[in-house]
Amino acid sequence: MRRWAHRTHLAGLLMLAAVAACRRAERAAPPHSLAVTDDAGRRVALTAPAQRVVSLLPSFTELLFAIGAGDRLVGRTAWCDYPPEALRVPSVGDGMPPNVEAVAARHPDLVVLYRSGPNITAAEQLERLGIKTVLLDLNRLEDLGPAARRLGVLTGRVASADSLAGAMDSLASQPPAPGSQSLVFIVWDNPAIVIGAGSYLDRLAALSGARNVFHDIGSPSAQVSIETIAARDPDFVAVLSDSAVPPRYARRPEWRAVRAVRARRFLFLPGQLFGRPGPRVAEAVRELRRRLDQAP
Amino acid sequence: MKYVLLAVAAVATLAAAVLLGPADVPLRDVLGSPIVWQLRLPRAVLAFLVGGALGVSGVALQALVRNPLADPFLLGLSGGAGLGAVAAIALDLPGPWALPLAAFVGAVSAMALVYRLGLMGGAELDPRILLLGGVAVGAFAAAITTAIVSLAEATELRNAFLWLWGGFSGASWTTVLVILVYAPLPLAVLAAAARPLDLLALGEEPAQYLGADVRRLKRLVYLAASLLTAAAVAVAGVIGFVGLIVPHLCRLVWGRLHRALFPTAFLVGGTLLAAADTLARTVVAPRELPVGIVTALLGVPVFAFLLRRWTVS
Questions:
Q1: What is the dihedral of CA A50, A21, A144, A81, to 10 degrees?
Q2: Distance in Å, alpha carbon of B201 to nearest chain A alpha carbon
Q3: For position A10, what pLDDT does the model report?
Q4: Domain chopping of chain A, boundaries
């Protein structure tokens, strides 16, 4: 508790510093075309397209490569493993929370961060070092288009970013595909945690023609009882896993009350493609559809 | 009369636990439904047994350290269990029993450490040393746990904390059987200590004069109560407040004699936890609440009421 209070105090100081920095920046306003408003409500303005970018989320790394700005990347997280070229970019650690010194050591002119409490603090620290930062949401399918557009503006890749964002937006506005199969995403077994409607995976399932049996839960994930899963009786259990080994709980007696677990109807979804929203969402939809079709 | 009411409450709670649930099971199918047999019944029975174990353990530990604030988890057990569970996930130990077993080993290790501290320099399980030792060992274990969580890469570790917060999601007849085989021994040890524990309430020296082997009594009670709690942690995580409130509640109704306190604490604890788990499963359906939240929400007002009674009298 004391540590938290200390932290918020620190964040407050940093915020003051950031406000002061913003005021200075506004006086010499750069050309309008290189400015965006990020998801923390901050105005991010560059004098020239970013040439040295550090991405602190695998989804951003994928987006940057997809809009043709991959060669500007000078730093990534340990989790950024796609596309393969990304692995040649130096890693700045796991990014949770960001190691501000390691990021600054790459001398970036733009750092792209996922908007979260610790990341907002890190962004303020970086701004104090004179490094521009942009905080973006990336939880749902609907976030992909706006994120791509703003990254396009900041890297000067507006045309390709707009066309990618257009594709993402049209996918996001598509109605659920027809289909009669149902599934549950189980992300943890004890207590059972499932994916609800406010999530990327729920939309992915809908676009693939499979119904998430916990679509009525509004939040991205929720704790439920095994009994509820058994009562909803999904056709498949979707598991984020790179290997096709049934999860450990499949052998436990209480889980055998769920028909799909009993019948070993698991869909193994590789984390690299399904574990995060990214420009390959259409590929993920096709892949999930293929797995649903191939299932016995 | 009080005993009859208690028995009725226990049976009614278990019946409600079996009849209520997010899945719609018609009344006439209850006896044949796999949902009831595989999920609800073992879960209700396990919640009852764990609640009973925590209640009894709470009575024993409060008597042992002669402190009304003593809780089965106070003596470092929860910290040790947490360390064990997180280590099991970080090391990716295989098998469905890895997590509960590691939590059990962690809890028992923490308990052994506190026990050792309690005997240092001839302290003979001095309550003050035990309480301080428990806090210190718990803090130490929590520090190592946090270090593992912040250094390890597995995002699954966050879920270890969820598990640790307690719940009966993992209940099955196997877990019920484990408790049924394990619990009778420590329960019997405690039941046999009922009379000497009454004497201990008078103070260690008077108890010794009245014929109680205080040294042996304290060691046996400490080990039995801790082992009982460790088993509860292993199958259900850390469920707070049951072991703290139930002894007070029982002393209020049944007096201070342990011959009456142990059985009633078992039944009251079981009833309370089975009821709390039923609420956890049903009130926010289709979602589920961690049962520890329900016990705290029910327990804190009761506790505040008890505190008021004390300060008034």
A1: 60
A2: 37
A3: 44
A4: 32-172, 181-294
